[in-house]
Amino acid sequence: MAMYAALRRASSAVVPLALRRTTAPSSSRTFHSVFSTGLLLSGEKATRTVVAPSLRFANSFATKTSADESLVQVLESEIKCAFDDNQSQHVEIPDDFPFEIEDNPGERTIQLKRQYQDEIIKVQVDIPNVALDENEEDDDAEKTSESSIPLVVSVFKGNGVCLEFGVTAFPDEIAIDSLSVKNLDESEDQLAYEGPEFTDLDENLQKAFHKYLEIRGIKPSTTNFLQEYMFSKDNKEYLGWLKNLKKFVEQ
């Protein structure tokens, strides 16, 4: 109805008074016909009527712009904090680190690789997990954090078969979660028997597998460094993620 009223006001400058009186105000189709006829009969140059945006649209646009600007300011503040954290967590690779590191920006995992005698050892390392433990012995629950990193260790011997370990590395401690023999030629749809739970194995067998991994480089000195490295990588990836968010919002 507001648009119709605006058009009626615009037409009054060009439509003769007698012709306007013959127009039925309730018929938009009749009005359009008379308006067009009026323009032709007047012989005057028609002027374009620009209808201003509604107040609701203007307010909506202003609100969106204000919200986006506020979001950018918060992102900039968080980017500065992440940048400062990143600068303070630079990690040097030890000279005796036994693996080559493949670290691709934008990915949450890194790949390790080394050769041990006739074997190829590959390790996929994921972003650290931090779990909060609560001591509920008293009313003021004391919270401590314990960090860990998940690893998948694969041992290849060039015969199309590999030994794969699921490992969780804690500070100064390594836990083997799973163990299986993988045939690389088998379809992923095949459900091969992967053995019992590792913790159900004989204790001596568990210790032997821990030693098996240790001599191949999966030991506390290695995983302790990987914890620091992955915390640093997590900060770098977070900083890049924030910058991508800011770039998108500003477009």
Give an overview of the whole structure.
- By secondary structure, this protein is an alpha+beta fold.
- The chain is 43% helix and 24% strand.
- It contains 6 helices and 7 strands, in the order ααααβββββββαα.
- It has helices spanning 2-11, 17-21, 28-42, 55-88, 203-214, 220-250, and strands at residues 100-102, 110-116, 119-125, 129-135, 142-156, 161-170, 173-183.
- Strands 1, 2, 3, 4, 5, 6 and 7 form a 7-stranded antiparallel β-sheet that branches.
- A hairpin with a 2-residue loop joins strand 2 and strand 3 (119-125).
- It is elongated.
- 10% of the residues are buried.
The helix tally amounts to 6
Fraction of residues in β-strands? 15-25%
The number of strands is 7
Helix content: 40-55%
Largest sheet: 7 strands, antiparallel
Low confidence ranges: 1-46
Rg, nearest Å: 35 Å
Q: What is the overall silhouette?
A: elongated
Secondary structure elements and pairings:
Elements: H1 2-11, H2 17-21, H3 28-42, H4 55-88, E1 100-102, E2 110-116, E3 119-125, E4 129-135, E5 142-156, E6 161-170, E7 173-183, H5 203-214, H6 220-250
Antiparallel strand pairs: 1-2, 2-3, 3-5, 4-5, 5-6, 6-7
Task: Supply the key terms.
43% helix, 7 strands, alpha+beta, disordered N terminus
Tell me briefly what this model is.
This protein is α+β, with helices and mostly antiparallel strands and 251 residues long. It has helices at 2-11, 17-21, 28-42, 55-88, 203-214, 220-250, and strands spanning 100-102, 110-116, 119-125, 129-135, 142-156, 161-170, 173-183.
